[in-house]
Amino acid sequence: MFHLTGIIISLFLALLLFTKKGKSTADFILALWLTLIALHLFCYYTLVSGTYVEFPYLLGVEIPLPLIHGPFLYLYIAALVNQSNKRLHWFIHFIPATIAYILLSGFFIQTFNHKINVYQHHGIGYEKLVSIIRLPIIPSGIIYVVWSLILLKKHSINIQKQFSYTEKINLNWLVYLTIGMGAIWLSVILGNDISTFMLVDLFILFIGYFGIKQVGIFTNRVVNTQLMDTDDIKLEEGNDPGVSSLANGTEKTKYLKTAVEPELMSKVHKELTLLMQTEKLFKDPGLNLDGLAGRLGVHSNTLSQVINSMEQRNFYDYINDFRIKEFQRIAVLPENSNFTLLSLAFEVGFNSKTSFNRNFKKATGLSPKEYCQQEKIQLGNAT
């Protein structure tokens, strides 16, 4: 029954994505993946329930399916971070699965009665072929999970160069997705089909809950509005800047930049410092490089170079430094003694307790609570 729930939810989520207005390449990939997960779950359900005799045309279809899940995970993540926009290259990832289906073609053309008989006798006559097909399954899963984590690591580094906060970037969604797949593959390695498919069902429930409630993947609300495109060429050609940012990595971004003249750099830096001190733009938790550059009337690449060169830090650290100093300033004011640490953190622009604690300790070597104790600052009890 639990497997049927996973199947229904998978198909429902896929339908939401296929009918979603303005769906992206990533949406299409996820929709297709969910459809194939539903097929895989259904095939497994027929086998464990003994109803496979009613669906003989599906027999054998499930054998190569594990080879497609790793590629779909990687391609979905790559599409979200704009690393895989050449669809012709997608097929390369599915060559192992394609070869597996070709090897099984002799079985597929058999009569239904023959197929049922093979399954009733535990794959008699096809044992060696199935063993060969299953040989790359575990390595494939491990490789794609690791590959996806590496891609996310690179992307998280790039995010920090563009944004003053990271929690609202939909990176957690992708990390959880990859960890979930990793857990499934661990179960595959341990060789327990029951626990593996139970994990797949839970994986689908997670995608549904987190994707709808936390991220909005399955709605028409734009998920990647925080991931603005910083590729100069694409922006100048009129491509949608709302499609994921930091498309081609740090190196390509560096090549797109042109050196800023020292005079201009000094001028922009002075204007930036004045703007931050007078208008305290850092208090906006959604402040990003493009928005700040727009206020200064310069290109985001110019501003990035100014911050990197003049402040010797990235945009993320630059903005959070202002927030920390502002917190230190207002925490000692008598009128704020009734406020909590967290409320003051929100006041200065942090959008979560985790972000505040992490960045404060990074800058001062102390947690906010330790700092207040050291400075004998009395604030509200809740922290």
Automatic annotation (TrEMBL):
One of its GO terms (molecular function) is DNA-binding transcription factor activity. Residues 272-374 form the HTH araC/xylS-type domain. Keywords: DNA-binding, Membrane, Transcription, Transcription regulation, Transmembrane, Transmembrane helix. PROSITE patterns: HTH_ARAC_FAMILY_2. The keyword Zinc does not apply. It comes from the Bacteria. The chain crosses the membrane at residues 6-22, 29-47, 59-81, 88-109, 129-152, 173-190, 196-212. It holds the Pfam family HTH_18. This is Helix-turn-helix domain-containing protein.
